[in-house]
């Protein structure tokens, strides 16, 4: 027997899937499908759940910058472009996904959106962002290194850091570094630091 929360999650999944197919058909934006990774520490791609409602909960202004860590095809960047961020960036390890994300970004025609093909563990510019989006893109071991890098960036530039984390299976890593949960409704958590 399926419980109510599982049924709701399936409903959200199929609603998201239909919406992504409509975006593809009407605007040519390709955020659809699932792409598995052949690297065990990476989770593959399946596109995030809509984050527009989450972003509405936050006091975003023209000086805020968001970075999607493990941006896949760039779906969170599409949602973020509906808000007044100064800059909207994504980093993605997979060259294949980076190519698709860059194509989607060009089709958005939003000069604030940029995509970089790189490893999140060695990305050197976390201090440029105060918002981060993470959709469970990799293992807890890699998450540990990324969160540590974000904390180190705080030492370079003091600011309030906000992390929107979908499917927060490595939430303990954030707790270890004293991030505070300000919103929690599975599959989403919003955390702050600083």
From TrEMBL:
The protein's matches in InterPro entries, at most eight in alphabetical order, are given as: KsgA/Erm, SAM-dependent_MTases_sf
Going by the UniProt record, its keywords in alphabetical order are: Methyltransferase, RNA-binding, S-adenosyl-L-methionine, Transferase
What CDD domains does the record tag this protein with? AdoMet_MTases
| SUPFAM superfamilies reported for this sequence | S-adenosyl-L-methionine-dependent methyltransferases
- Membrane-crossing ranges are none
Q: Does the keyword Membrane apply?
A: no
Spell out the molecular function terms from Gene Ontology. methyltransferase activity; RNA binding
Query: Which GO BP annotation is one of this protein's?
Result: methylation
Q: Looking at the record's lineage, which domain of life comes first?
A: Bacteria
This protein is called Methyltransferase domain-containing protein
Q: Which organism is it from?
A: Ruminococcus flavefaciens
Phylogenetic lineage = Bacteria, Bacillati, Bacillota, Clostridia, Eubacteriales
């Amino acid at each position: 027997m399926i419980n109510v929360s599982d049924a709701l999650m399936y409903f959200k999944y199929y609603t998201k899937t239909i919406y992504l197919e409509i975006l593809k058909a009407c605007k040519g934006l390709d955020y659809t499908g699932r792409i598995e990774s052949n690297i065990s520490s990476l989770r593959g791609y399946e596109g995030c759940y809509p984050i527009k409602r989450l972003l509405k909960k936050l006091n975003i202004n023209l000086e805020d910058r968001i970075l999607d860590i493990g941006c896949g095809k760039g779906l969170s960047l599409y949602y973020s472009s509906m808000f007044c961020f100064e800059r909207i960036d994504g980093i993605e390890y997979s060259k294949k996904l980076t190519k698709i994300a860059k194509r989607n970004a060009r089709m958005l025609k939003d000069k604030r959106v940029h995509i970089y093909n790189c490893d999140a563990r060695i990305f050197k510019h976390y201090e440029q962002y105060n918002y981060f989006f993470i959709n469970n893109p990799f293992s807890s071991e890699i998450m540990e290194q990324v969160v540590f890098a974000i904390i180190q960036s705080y030492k370079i530039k003091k600011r309030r850091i906000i992390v929107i984390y979908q499917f927060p299976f490595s939430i303990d890593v954030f707790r270890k570094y004293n991030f505070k949960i300000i919103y929690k409704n599975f599959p989403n958590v919003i955390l702050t630091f600083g």
